[in-house]
């Protein structure tokens, strides 16, 4: 492994921002565009990506690796130890310089920092910790920071970094342990899930602090009341409560990493920050191993329930290495499959669906020509049509074309008037999909046959060959060694919009 010496900061940025594009924990983008006469500004693709804040704003992040050096040899990774690629590494000071210079120029609003494993997980994580500590304490940077935790790092390091960042994520890498053992033999599910559990517990403990403070205030008020009656007890109550608070901190807070370094000594109260306040997320590579959509979605559902993740990201496998254990994918990355999984993920998180409702063992993969909500509705026509003026909210959000917002507007609007199809269009319902599944005052606008084949044909623009394959998946047909089941079809603009907004 050759580490390039004497590289300029711009050269390191080009290498390490390009190496970071495979971490799909935000919506990556970037373009080179020179300034033009009569125009204001230009654009550089290096290290820029976009993510969405909790209030819906699209924010720009500086997205880089701390180093693309790695001691692991994951078969699917561009930065694996056996690959002959140019290696580079940022120092903590360079991370701070880049972040502040980009921020001062209004290019970014935050930092997304990941890294290969340099020397060891502990060494890498401590380098990241030093960079974040300098950025927060010396440069006084209060912007958004997302950090990828390194599996196998010391728990004290995870805690220390968690107090300096807004969101942390630990990449699950592959959906199952079998896939991890075959393609990433240096990693195990235990080393990945252990920091996930630690971050979850840390976030829970952080939530308990306001409750303890509220309990403290109540205890002091009670002490004051006793003092007003008995003439004693205020100082005693305060002293007892302070002892209780210190005891709680001692029991629940681990010592921070690098206590041997005076510059690293820091207490929670000194920086006034919470532990990973924006929650944690993870990423799975889709298509590198033979798991079907049902397995992938079941894993995501379990992660949401057991580890309280904010988001699971799905990254279509890109064939950048040659290995007999890796799939060939002659049609390219399964981008449309990735989009269908993102759409199904929205259904899990906001629409009340379960993985077992969307897929099962007999039908383990999504129909790539229909979004998962339409696919589910077509397989459950016994529940439709739905009367708009009477159906409960939980049933409205299951109608294709009616999203969470439009369902809420329907419930609110029908309190004062009976809704018709023209009203639904103004509310924001996508009638192109919803018209097959709803009635207004008992009337239905669609007059054709309410069968799965007929509606499927209408929803997929009448592509007869594709529709025949959808409707006759169990029929005999000519097999091909290169049949990818249309997984290489690029996502449409409507698909992209639904993945970003979640409105299906």
Automatic annotation (TrEMBL):
PANTHER family, sorted: ENDONUCLEASE/EXONUCLEASE/PHOSPHATASE FAMILY DOMAIN-CONTAINING PROTEIN 1 (PTHR21180), TYPE II SECRETION SYSTEM PROTEIN K (PTHR21180:SF9)
Organism: Cuneatibacter caecimuris
InterPro entries xref list: Aldolase_TIM, DNA_rSAM_put, Endo/Exo/Phosphatase_dom_1, rSAM, rSAM_sf, RuvA_2-like
Protein's name according to its UniProt entry: Putative DNA modification/repair radical SAM protein
Listed NCBIfam families: rSAM_link_UDG
Cleavable signal peptide: none
Molecular function as annotated in GO: catalytic activity; iron-sulfur cluster binding; metal ion binding
Swiss-Prot/TrEMBL keywords: Iron, Iron-sulfur, Metal-binding, S-adenosyl-L-methionine
